[in-house]
Amino acid sequence: MKPLRVGLAGLGTVGAAVAKIVAEQGTALASRCGRPLELTAVSARDKARDRGVSLTKAEWFSDPLKLATSAQIDVFIELMGGEGDPAKASVEAALARGVPVVTGNKALLAHHGVALAKAAEAKGVALNYEAAVAGGIPIVKALREGLGANRVERVYGILNGTCNYILTTMEASGRAFADVLGEAQRLGYAEADPTFDIGGMDTAHKLCLLAAVAFGNAPALDGIHVEGIERISPMDIMFAREFGFRIKLLGVASRADSGIEQRVHPAMVPLGTPLADVDGVFNAVVADGDLVGKSVYEGRGAGAGPTASAVMSDLLDIARGVRLPTFGAPAATIARPKLAAMGDHQGACYLRFTVIDRPGVIAVLSRCLADQAVSIESMLQRSRAPGEPVPVVMITHEAREAAMTKALAAIVAAGVVTEQPVMIRMERF
Ligand SMILES: NC(=O)c1ccc[n+]([C@@H]2O[C@H](COP(=O)([O-])OP(=O)(O)OC[C@H]3O[C@@H](n4cnc5c(N)ncnc54)[C@H](OP(=O)(O)O)[C@@H]3O)[C@@H](O)[C@H]2O)c1
Questions:
Q1: Residues near 147 by Cβ (< 8 Å), separated by ≥ 6?
Q2: Is the domain covering 342-426 a CATH 3.40.50.1100 domain?
Q3: Does residue 81's CB lie within 6 angstroms of at least one atom of ligand 1?
Q4: pTM of the shown model
Q5: Which of 11, 140, 194, 309 qualifies as a FRET site for 352, CA 20 to 30 Å off?
Q6: 177-220, pLDDT tens digit by residue?
Q7: Atom of ligand 1 at shortest distance to CA of 80?
Q8: Where in the chain is the domain with CATH 3.30.70.260?
Q9: 121 CA to middle of ligand 1, Å?
Q10: What spacing in Å lies between the alpha carbon of 72 and ligand 1's midpoint?
Q11: C-alpha of residue 318 to centroid of ligand 1, in Å
C-alpha cells in the first residue's frame, strides 16, 4: 500500500520524539495501520539544531505554512504551539487543501476549535488533538468513542502536571509555594514563565476541550471560572490533611440546573479517592456517564514519550482511514453551551481566617456566615498568646458560592481579620 507521507512542523520536545518514533518503529507501525509512514517534510526555526534523529530524508521547510501547503504530504502534524500564527495559519492552510491535521495545541483548539473543525469537515478530513489534553492519557478517544453512547454528567480531573508536582512536593516537604516552584523550574517541570500553568489557564484550555467532547458543545474558554495555586500555603495543606483531604488543582465541568458549569481552582479532595492519590507530574481524568458510571483515567500528562504516544495514535487513525467529528458531533450542529454562573455553584468550603485572638471575634465570623445562610460543619482554632494573630479554620456545609462570597466580604469589612480570608472549595466526588 502507498505510504502515508507525513509533514511535521515543530521539532521540539514532542516533535522530535514523533520524528524518532516514525524513524525507529516504522515496521511495527506499518503492520498495525496497514501502510508505511514516511516523514517527508519537516519544519522548525533552527535548521542546524541536532534533534537526536536523522532528518536527511525529509525536505526542510523554514516556513511551516509552505510545508502545510506542500504537495509532498498527506497529513500535517502541527507541534509548534501557540494560539496564533504560524500554528493557526498552517493548520488552516492544510485543512483548506483537504490535508488531515494532527496537533497537540490546546490553545489553538480552545480558541479556534469550532472554525477549524468546520474547515476539516468541509473537506472530509480529520482534525485530531489527543495530545492537547492530559498528554499520554487517551481521554479524547475515551470520551469521543468509548463513552460515545453515554450522557456524560461530569468530567473532571488533574490536568496540569506542573501544579500537581508543586502541590505534592509542598505536602511532602512542608516547603512554601515559591520555594517549590523555583525547584520545579530548575528540574524542568515548570516553564521559565510559569504563569499559564500555575495560574490555571493551561488547565482551562484542556477543560474546555474535555467539556466540548463530553457534552457535545463548542469549547467555551471564556466561560470558565479560573483560579490558580499561587495562594496555597503549607498551613492550608496541613489543615487539609487534618480534615482528611488533599489539595489539588482541578478542572471540573458538569451539567448544572442553570447550564454547563466549568471551573478551574484548587480543591480539597477526600483522601482515599482516586484523584487524591495522583502524585507528582501525573494527570488523571474522571468521567461520570449515565450508562458506564464513573470511569477513571490516569497517566503521564506531559513529556516527550507520553505526548508523542498521543500524537502517534491520532496519526495511526488517519493512516487507517478512521475519521471522527472533531468534538464528537458534526461541527455544524455544535453550539456554544448555556453556561452556569459561578455564583450559582453549590458546594462546601474550607475557610481560613487570620484573626487577632480577642473575645468576640468568633462570634463576628459566625454571624457574617449565618447572615448569608452559610452554616458551619466543623471548626478548628489554634491558640497563641492573647492579642496575636491566630488561624481559625472552618468547614462549611454546602452553600451557594454567591452567599459564601458575600459572607467573606462582610467578614473583611467587619475588621476582624488581619489577612484576606482563604477559601478552598471541597469536592466530595
Ligand atoms: N511538551 C509537552 O510535554 C507537551 C504536552 C502536551 C502538549 N504539548 C503541546 O505540543 C506542542 C509542542 O510542544 P513542545 O513542548 O514540543 O514545544 P517546544 O519544545 O517549544 O517546540 C516547539 C517547536 O516548534 C518550532 N517552532 C516554533 N515557532 C516556529 C516557527 N515560527 N516556525 C517553525 N517552527 C517553529 C520550534 O523550532 P526550534 O526548535 O527551531 O526552536 C520547536 O521545534 C505545543 O502545542 C504544546 O502545548 C506539549
A1: 287, 289, 292, 295
A2: no
A3: yes
A4: 0.96
A5: 194
A6: 999 999 999 988 888 899 999 999 999 999 999 999 999 999 99
A7: 24
A8: 342-426
A9: 26
A10: 22
A11: 22
Counting atoms of ligand 1 from 1, which one is nearest the CA of 108?
A: 45
Identify the bridge partners of residue 274 per DSSP, sorted by sequence position.
none
CATH of domain 147-300: 3.30.360.10
List the CATH code of the domain at 4-132.
3.40.50.720
Cα angle at 198 between 231 and 298, to 5 degrees?
115
What is the amino acid identity at position 357?
D
Q: pLDDT digits over 287-310, tens only?
A: 999 999 999 999 999 999 999 999
Q: Is 55 in the pocket of ligand 1 (CB under 6 A)?
A: no
- Would you say the CB of residue 13 lies under 6 angstroms from ligand 1? yes
Which residues touch 6 (CB under 8 Å, ≥6 apart)?
Answer: 22, 37, 38, 39, 40, 41, 73, 74, 75, 77, 315
Which residue minimizes the CA distance to atom 4 of ligand 1?
Answer: 302
Q: Say which of 123, 206, 248, 338 is annotated catalytic.
A: 206
Q: Is 206 a catalytic residue?
A: yes
Residues of the chain with CATH 3.40.50.720: 4-132
User: Pairing relation of β-strands 376-381 and 225-226?
Assistant: unpaired
Sequence-distant (≥ 6) Cβ neighbours of residue 86 within 8 angstroms: 9, 63, 64, 65, 80
Ligand 1 in reach of 160 Cβ (< 6 A): no
Local structure of 365: helix, strand or coil:
helix
